[in-house]
Amino acid sequence: MNMKDLNLDMTAFWMPFTNNRQFKSSPRLLVKAEGMHYTSSDNRQILDGTAGLWCVNAGHCRTEIVEAIRQQAGEMDFAPTFQMGHPKAFEAAAKIAEITPQGLDRVFFTNSGSESVDTALKIALAYHRARGEGQRTRLIGRERGYHGVGFGGISVGGISPNRKAYSGQLLPAVDHLPHTLNIKEAAFTKGQPTWGAHLADELERIVTLHDASTIAAVIVEPLAGSTGVLVPPQGYLQKLREICDKHGILLIFDEVITGLGRLGKPFAAQYFGVTPDIITMAKGVNNAAVPMGAVAVKTSVHDTIVDAGNTGAIEFFHGYTYSGHPLAAAAACAALDVYKNDGLFERAAKLAPHFEKSIHGLRDLPNVVDIRNLGMVGGIELSTRDGKPGARAHEIFVKCFEKGALIRYTGDILAFSPPLIISEAQIDELFGIVAQAIRETA
C-alpha cells in the first residue's frame, strides 16, 4: 500500500498539535498495528517507542480487548449514565478501584485526560464548598506542567505555547509552583535526582501570599511527561503532601501518563509512596482502544460532596454524555484483566533497569545535554540550534520514523514510553535507531 493507493484527500482534517502544512506536504501515515509495531502506508514495520501517545501500554490490537469491544458493540452500543446505568460502567469502576491506592475507591468516568483534569478541579472546588469553605477557590499548578487542553487544564498547566493564545480567558485564581528540572545540578541522573526537594517549599511561600483559606487544591504530575520527562527529586512529592495536609489543601496527582504501569506499579502514587486525594487517569486505562478517562477520589472527598446534597437532588452537577460509555468500559475491563493476567506492571519494573542502561548509553552522542529516566519512561534533551528551537529534535524524529521507529519529541527533547510488552532486544533496537539518527543530525 502506498500514498497513491490510499487516494487520500487530506484537506478537511485539521490535525491536532501538528504543523499541518509541513505534515501534509510530506505525510507519515500508519495503517495497521499489532503488538509492538505499526505498519506504515509504504508497508514498513515501525517499532513503537511511545506506546502510541503514552497510552497503548499492553501493545496494539490485543485480542482480548478487541473481542470485548466487538461483543459489547453487538450487544449494546450506547446507554446513558445520567439517572440511568449499565453494568459495564460499574464493573470497570470496581476494577479500577481494586488497583488504586487505598482509600481512593470512588471513580468518575470521563473521555480523556483533559476532561479528567477539569473534573478533578471541579471536585476539589465542590468538596470545599460542601464542607463550608466555599472561599477555597484558588488552584495551584506548576510551571511546565501539562494537564490537557481544557480551560481548567491550561490554566493550572505551565506550558507557554498552550496558554498564550488564550491568556485573556484563563481561570483567574491560579498560581504556579516552579518546575523541578535543573540540568546544571542533576544532568544525566539515573532515576530521581537527589537535588531539588526544597522546591516543594515554594508551596509555603504561595500559601503565605494567598492565605491557605483561599486555596482548594494543588495539581502536579508525579512525573511530568509531555514537557520532556521531568523526574521528581527525592523527597519532593512527600514534602508537597505534608504541606497540603498542614493547610487543608487537596493534592491531585495527574497520572494520565504515569498511571497503569508506566513506573512498574498501577500508579505513580504507589511507586513514590505518596497518596494524593484525587488521581486523574486516561490513556492506559483501557489501552487507548476507545477514548476514556477517569478520576479516582478518596472516599471521604466523595462522601462529603454526596452527603451535602439535598435529598432527591443531583449532588454534583457535572458529567459527559459518554461518561462510562459501554464500549470504553468493556475495553477497560478487558485491558485491566490483561495487565493483571500478563503481569505487565511487574514486567515494567523488571525491564526498567535495562531501559535505563540502554538510554543512558547515548549520553556521549553529539548535542546530547541531558538524559532523564524513571521506570519505562525516558527523555533525551538536545542542544537547541540558534534561532530554531525544536528543529533538531524534529529532524531526529523524522529520521527515526524513516529507519523504523516511532518516537516523540517536545521542543528539543526526545521522549520514550514503549508498550510494556517490549523485549530487551527491542529496547536495544529502539535506542540503536535513535543513536543512528542523532549521529546523522548536525
UniProtKB/TrEMBL annotation:
- Keyword Disulfide bond on this protein? no
- The protein's superkingdom reads Bacteria
- Write the protein's name: Omega-amino acid--pyruvate aminotransferase
Q: Name one GO biological process term.
A: biotin biosynthetic process
Kindly state which keywords UniProt assigns to this record, in alphabetical order.
Aminotransferase, Pyridoxal phosphate, Pyruvate, Transferase
One of the record's GO molecular function terms: pyridoxal phosphate binding
InterPro entries in the cross-refs: Aminotrans_3 (IPR005814), Aminotrans_3_PPA_site (IPR049704), PyrdxlP-dep_Trfase (IPR015424), PyrdxlP-dep_Trfase_major (IPR015421), PyrdxlP-dep_Trfase_small (IPR015422)
